[in-house]
Amino acid sequence: MRLLPAFLHVLLALALAPLLPGVINRTKAWFGGRHGRPLFQLYYDLAKLARKSAVYSRTTTWVFRAGPVIAFASSALTVLLLPFAGQTAPAGFPGDFLLLIYLFALGRFFTMAAALDTGSAFEGMGASREATFSALAEPAFFLGLAALAFHARSISLGLIYERMSWSTSTVAPLMLVAAAFFVILLIENSRIPFDDPETHLELTMIHEVMVLDRSGPDFLLIQYGAALKLWVMAALFTGILAPAPFASYGENLALALGAQGLAAVLIGIVESTMARLRLARIPQMLTGSIILSLLSLLFLLRPFA
Amino acid sequence: MIWLLPGIPLLTGAISLLRIPRSWRRALLVFAAVSHSALTALAFRFPDLFASHGWLALDKAGHFFLAISSVLFLITTLHLVTDCHYLSGSETRSSDWFLATEPSATLAACLNLFLATMTLCALSRHLGLLWVAVEGTTLATAPLIHYRRDSSSLEATWKYLVLCSVGIAVALLGNFFVAAAGGEHAGLSLDSLRSNAASLNPVWLKAAFVFFIVGYGTKMGLAPMHTWLPDAHSEAPAPVSALLSGALLNCAFLAVLRAHAVLAAAGLADFSKGIFVLFGVISLVVAAFFIVGQGDYKRLLAYSSVENMGILSIAVGVGAGFGGLFHALNHSLVKGGMFLLAGGILSRCGSTSVRDARGLSDRARMVAGLWLTGFLALSGLPPFGIFFSKLAILKTMIDGGHWLLTTLFLAALAIVFIAMSRIVLLMLFDKPEKGFPTQRSRIQLDTLAPLLLLLLALATGIFLPESVGDLIRAAAQEVGL
Amino acid sequence: MTNLWIDLLCLLLMLANFRMLGVSRLGACVRTAAHQGMLLCLLPVLVAHDFTLGLVPVVLLGLIVRGILMPRLLWRAVLKAGVRRELVPEVGFLFSLLAGVVLLGLCFLIAQPLQADQATARTLALPVALFTIMTGFYLIIMRRTAAMQALGYLVMENGIFAFGAVFAVHEPALIEMGVLLDVLLAVFIMTIMIHHIGREFDHLDTDSMSVLKD
């Protein structure tokens, strides 16, 4: 009975993930008074990339070729662990949130390793930044999930999100975790106050610089993997704010999908209204999100909460 | 009528803040001082005229401390008028008036306001109002310390302002604790607290007292919160130091006593007494430590104030009500005189360091003689009043069987006496390396006020009027001692 | 339902504290303190069971003094002193933030036995009020500039006010105003002193003020 919606969710994620960047772009375009790219631009891009062939530098090794594949595979695997619309994930098990975090870490590690493999100083710089910031983002993510796990008294993602309940005593901690997750969502998906997905030239960028040498199907995997990662992180974020409140599955699904769209709009708004942070400020913001997660844990540890 | 007591200095202070001629300011100051002491004296004779009004009332304890402040203020004003250089100075006009007022104008205005807030402290029968008044004294005196407008006085002012403001903010927390202890009906007025004393929550009340003694104790100069005191007292001009030491510390002392009275009414006197003893002993020890080898005679006096606040605190702790309050009176008179003398020495020797003041007996015989007399009075030699107040405290201590405390007390007093006498003798009789201009032998006006104060201190020892003794006893009883 | 609003308000107050602990610009700190002061004035309104019209002038006055007047004064003094406004802290901001978390945990511990029977027992109000006081203390002690110390005093006063609001201490309006006036004057005199310090030392570093000692 629960198997069917679970696989539907995986299909939905795979199908709809490239839509989120489109929504973000349209929001930004609307703020800028432009018409903007088509909503399905990423689909067109992916289709175009699929038709091309990849070019590899002679200095690179197998690490460079393995990078995008592993990055995509890890992102795709996280989809299997993601509870959605109040339903457990197809591959959920107790303690799966650890696997989720480490799958992200694995993808990131191989993206960085592949970037270093090119031997370009430019890409190496991006990798070093990615390593620094993810080292700070990970504890925040970890602590936030720990707080949620504590709240639900369970260590499986499915139950954590199923038992999400907003009451007077949990408002404060849940809001804090949500805020922390939003910051992590932005940094992990290289969105604006931390990184600029548009730029390919600025020295401050992080993620884009690591994939400069990519072409053809490799780039497709990277783009698609990034979209999936955005989908998963956004679902973790919206899952807190919009826990499945309805009795019928259809309504819950509609709400969850709507929430995903709204999250994309929210990212678009943030990207349109904020300037990119100075590089030195980024660790501060990340520390801030660690603090938010810590506080939330602290609040939940209160005896009467 | 009771409103007149803080009202007149408040009004004169406000007027003094305006741009008015210097001589007017002086006249206003004199008027405020004279009228204040006249009213305070009048209140002894006709208590009905000063019936309580709202949260203001002239109870015995308040009246006692009010009288001390009033007398000291009057004599200090006399000093300011006879020793003119404090209140004169170049009249500067600037666009930003408050930032650039000439020091003498600030001095006159803030002294008036200081008197007003001090009076309010003594009169208030409501813990909230008391807090407002004590914080008011901090604010009124901070500009006074910055009188010299140089970097070191600025430093002293900043320390004083930040430390005391923070300290008093802690006391506000204490107020809230008392309010929480009493619930809705008890409020913060001393009378209603007393009538509801039985229903007050003891845990909250104890916590409140700790906040009070830390908060107001900062202002009172109890160690280890005393660190602002030597700086402020040594940097302020002499008359201000005299008032700070003689009157301001007493105000804070009264505030702590009021808190103690609430606790005593609720049957928690033993708790607060224990804390008084603790802070008293720490103050005594710290003061003794810093007095030994002190190279600055104004700081010496400041640490002596810390020591005496410690003595007061111990006196309250062992239950020596009469001795404690009598000691407060004596200390105010003597220390006021000493600080005024220190100002005289400073103007003759040009520095507050003991080294520069050597050979004082040859340079200024009158000042030197008074300085020695003041030192003897301060150390508690008979027949000065301090001898009798210390004796009273000691007697209570011994009667109560506090042997360890007595030993500690006497040891600290002995150390302070030896250290201070060494410094004073050095100042009086040691020969400086280089010569100095010989002093002309004429009556020196600036020794008049210290002389008066020391004579008063002598009078309290030789002949204490029965009425004053009764007042002190009644005051002590009122604050739960 | 009111508990929910109190909790949300306290959350904002607490985040304001963390912002002041973690931010490097004095201007941002002063603005945050101002916002905190404004938000704070809602607390008595939320806590009060019976909202009376008599509360309005006190709340409004508090709003003006805490939220607008005092931060403005302070900021003006800093501008007039003409000093660098970027803070160079003794301890890193990261450390300050973590210290903040530790302090907050401490406040939860302290608040636990105190939360007896007042109306806000099950909310965050008491720990957050205590935390605000502690933040003020922290700023005064750890940030060695005159302006930050004045700001710390402001924050501490905010916390004490919140503490009073938590216990619904209703002092007579006259005394409430007296307290407010005192605090305002204290900040005013501090700003004058900041002006003098800026002129005397060319910066607001209180470390240079260490001539007086034994």
Write the layout of secondary structure elements.
The complex is a heterotrimer of chains A (305), B (481) and C (214).
Chain A: H1 3-16, H2 19-32, H3 41-51, H4 62-81, H5 96-117, H6 121-152, H7 157-162, H8 171-188, H9 207-210, H10 216-241, H11 249-273, H12 281-301
Helix pairs in contact in A: 2-11, 3-10, 4-5, 4-10, 5-6, 6-8, 6-12, 8-10, 8-12, 10-11
Chain B: H1 4-17, H2 22-45, H3 60-82, H4 103-123, H5 127-145, H6 151-186, H7 190-195, H8 202-220, H9 228-235, H10 238-265, H11 269-291, H12 297-318, H13 321-349, H14 360-363, H15 365-379, H16 385-399, H17 403-429, H18 448-462, H19 466-478
Chain C: H1 2-22, H2 26-40, H3 42-47, H4 55-81, H5 93-114, H6 125-142, H7 146-166, H8 173-201
What do you see in this structure?
The complex is a heterotrimer of chains A (305), B (481) and C (214). Chain A has helices at residues 3-16, 19-32, 41-51, 62-81, 96-117, 121-152, 157-162, 171-188, 207-210, 216-241, 249-273, 281-301. Chain A has one domain. Helix content of chain A is 70%, strand content 0%. The mean pLDDT of chain A is 87. Chain A has 12 helices and no strands. Chain A is globular, with a radius of gyration of 19 Å. In chain A, helix 4 runs parallel beside helix 10, helix 5 packs antiparallel against helix 6 and helix 10 packs across helix 11 (249-273). With 481 residues, chain B is an all-alpha fold. Chain B has a domain at 144-478. Chain B is globular, with a radius of gyration of 21 Å. Chain C is mainly alpha-helical and 214 residues long. Chain C has one domain (2-208). In chain C, 74% of the residues lie in helices and 0% in strands. Chain C is built from 8 helices and no strands. Chain C has helices spanning 2-22, 26-40, 42-47, 55-81, 93-114, 125-142, 146-166, 173-201. Classes of the chains: A mainly alpha (305), B mainly alpha (481), C mainly alpha (214). Chains B and C meet through helix 5, helix 6 and helix 9 of B and helix 6, helix 7 and helix 8 of C.
